[in-house]
C-alpha cells in the first residue's frame, strides 16, 4: 500500500474536494450476505492506494441489528494507515462510543436523524431523546481524545414523516455544534432530495452556523445524486460521502437505494476542474473487485461503460 496523500481540509483549498468513501460501512451494511473481514481490509487498501484519504469503515452498533458491521473493531485494529488517512466509524450512543474507544478508533461520527420516524427505526428513540443520548457518547470520546464529526440523517426527506423542515435541521445542527463537532454532514438518506432541497437546507444551516464546516451524504434512489452534488459544489460544499460502484443503503429506511458512486463523483469533480487526489484508473480496479465479490452489476453510471467519454483536463477556471 502506497502512502496516501496528507488530508487537506477543503476549507483551505477551494479547488479541492474531499471524498470519504463509505463502501465498507454504508455500502456493505445493506448487503444480504456478510462480507468477510479479509475482503474489507483488501478493499480498504485498494481505496487508499487509489488516493482516497478518508474512509468510513464501519459502525459500532448492535450486531444483531446490523450483523454486517459486527467486525468493525477488527477492522479498526487491522487498518492502521498512520496519519496520512482518516478512518471513520459511526456511533449512535454511549455504548457504541465506549466500544469505539476500546477498539482504538481515531475518528468517530455521531449519527442522529432529523425526523422522529426514522430516529425511532434507526436508534429506537425519537430525535430529541437520541440527541440526549449522544451527550454521554461525546463525553466518552472527548475524554479519550477522539475527534468527532456528526451526520444528520433524513436531513431533507424521511420515508416515514415526509419532508424535513430546514428549521428542524438547524435546531438539531445547533445542538450538535454545542458538542464541539468538527464537521457536520447532511444526509439524503432515502435519495429523494432535489437540488432545491439541497439549496434550501444547506443555505439555512450555513446562515445559522457560518463557521461550521458542512458536508453532504447523498443517495441516488431517484437518480438525482449527481445533480445534488453539482448544486452543493455551486454552494461551496467541498466534502462528500460516496461509495465506489454506488452500492449501499439504510436497512431502516424503506426504499433507500445506493450511495452516490465514488467513481461517478470523482469523474464529475475532475471535469468541473476540482482536484480529488483520486486516481480514476486505480478506482476502477477497486470497483471491478467489488463487482466480482458481490457477483452482480454495480449501480454507478461508469460501471456500465468502458471509460469516460471525454478525458478530464486541467482548466484555468471552474464553472461553479
From TrEMBL:
Q: Which SUPFAM superfamilies would you find in this protein's record?
A: Aldolase (SSF51569)
Q: Give the family from UniProt.
A: Belongs to the HMG-CoA lyase family.
- Recorded GO MF terms: lyase activity
Q: Does the keyword Nucleotide-binding apply?
A: no
Q: Does the keyword Transferase apply?
A: yes
Domain of life of the organism encoding this protein? Bacteria
What's the name of the protein?
Answer: Hydroxymethylglutaryl-CoA lyase
**What residues does the Pyruvate carboxyltransferase domain cover?**
17-284
Q: Name one Pfam family in it.
A: HMGL-like
User: Which keywords fit this entry according to its UniProt record?
Assistant: Lyase, Metal-binding, Transferase
Amino acid at each position: 500500500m502506497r502512502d496516501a496523500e496528507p488530508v487537506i481540509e477543503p476549507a483551505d483549498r477551494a479547488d479541492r474536494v474531499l471524498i470519504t468513501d463509505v463502501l465498507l460501512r454504508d455500502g456493505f451494511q445493506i448487503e444480504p450476505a456478510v462480507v468477510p473481514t479479509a475482503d474489507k481490509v483488501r478493499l480498504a487498501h485498494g481505496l487508499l492506494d487509489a488516493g482516497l484519504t478518508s474512509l468510513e469503515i464501519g459502525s459500532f452498533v448492535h450486531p444483531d441489528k446490523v450483523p454486517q458491521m459486527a467486525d468493525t473493531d477488527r477492522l479498526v485494529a487491522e487498518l492502521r494507515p498512520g496519519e496520512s488517512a482518516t478512518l471513520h466509524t459511526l456511533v449512535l450512543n454511549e455504548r457504541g462510543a465506549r466500544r469505539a474507544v476500546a477498539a482504538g478508533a481515531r475518528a468517530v461520527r455521531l449519527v442522529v436523524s432529523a425526523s422522529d420516524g426514522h430516529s425511532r427505526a434507526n436508534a429506537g428513540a425519537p430525535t430529541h431523546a437520541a440527541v440526549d443520548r449522544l451527550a454521554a457518547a461525546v463525553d466518552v470520546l472527548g475524554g479519550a481524545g477522539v475527534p468527532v464529526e456528526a451526520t444528520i440523517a433524513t436531513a431533507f426527506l424521511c420515508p416515514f414523516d415526509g419532508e424535513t423542515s430546514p428549521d428542524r435541521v438547524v435546531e438539531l445542527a445547533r445542538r450538535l455544534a454545542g458538542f464541539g463537532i468538527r464537521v457536520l454532514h447532511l444526509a439524503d438518506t432515502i435519495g429523494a432530495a432535489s437540488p432545491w432541497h439541497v439549496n434550501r437546507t444547506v443555505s439555512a444551516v450555513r446562515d445559522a452556523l457560518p463557521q461550521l464546516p458542512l458536508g453532504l451524504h447523498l443517495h441516488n434512489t431517484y437518480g438525482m445524486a449527481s445533480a445534488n452534488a453539482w448544486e452543493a459544489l455551486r454552494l461551496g460544499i467541498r466534502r462528500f460521502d460516496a461509495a465506489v460502484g454506488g452500492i449501499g443503503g439504510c436497512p431502516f429506511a424503506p426504499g433507500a437505494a445506493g450511495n452516490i458512486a465514488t467513481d461517478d463523483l470523482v469523474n464529475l469533480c475532475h471535469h468541473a476542474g476540482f482536484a480529488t487526489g483520486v486516481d480514476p484508473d486505480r478506482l476502477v480496479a477497486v470497483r471491478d473487485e467489488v463487482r466480482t465479490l458481490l457477483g452482480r452489476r454495480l449501480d454507478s453510471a461508469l460501471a456500465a461503460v468502458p471509460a469516460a467519454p471525454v478525458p478530464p483536463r486541467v482548466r484555468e477556471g471552474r464553472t461553479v
